């Protein structure tokens, strides 16, 4: 009787080990060693969603810039309203140009025209000192400051 049970017991033990190996996909150590066995996460992986940036309106763009302009130039409430209105109009026109998708030459001339109109309106709506401060701030915003390259001095080894 013992001779019959030993092979059955051995067969059952082998099938249980094979089931455990197949189910968990792990080699020696049953997952204790990170260099063996299954290295994937059990959670399903979803592709990364890339959200498209929201298209801002002209008012939203100008509202983001106004606190910095107000602080840098020192605008009064009336002057702030004038500058805000002028900037909204010019930004709206440039957004419309982008949507039209014209030739490069036409876009360039239209942008220059919009900038001239903006400059004239700001010149007429602001005192001269604040207009000059606005122009200087606008030029600083478009120009990136140059980074100074520092030369590293190497220390000589005393040997």
Textual characterization of the structure:
The chain is 63% helix and 0% strand. With 159 residues, the protein is mostly helical. Helix 2 packs antiparallel against helix 3 and helix 3 (77-100) runs antiparallel to helix 4 (104-125).
Concise synopsis of the structure shown:
With 159 residues, the chain is mainly α. It has helices spanning 2-24, 58-73, 77-100, 104-125, 128-142.
Mean pLDDT: 76
Q: Kindly state the number of beta strands.
A: 0
- Overall helicity: 55-70%
User: Count of helical segments?
Assistant: 5
How far apart are the termini?
A: 86 Å
Q: What Rg is obtained from the alpha carbons, in whole angstroms?
A: 36 Å
Main sheet attributes: strand count, strand direction, barrel closure: none
Instruction: Give the helix/strand class.
Output: mainly alpha
Q: What kind of assembly state do the chains in view correspond to?
A: single chain
Could you list the spans in which at least 5 consecutive residues all have pLDDT below 50? none
Strand content: under 5%
Topology:
Layout: H1 2-24, H2 58-73, H3 77-100, H4 104-125, H5 128-142
Helix pairs in contact: 2-3, 3-4
List key phrases describing it.
single chain, 159 residues, mainly alpha, elongated
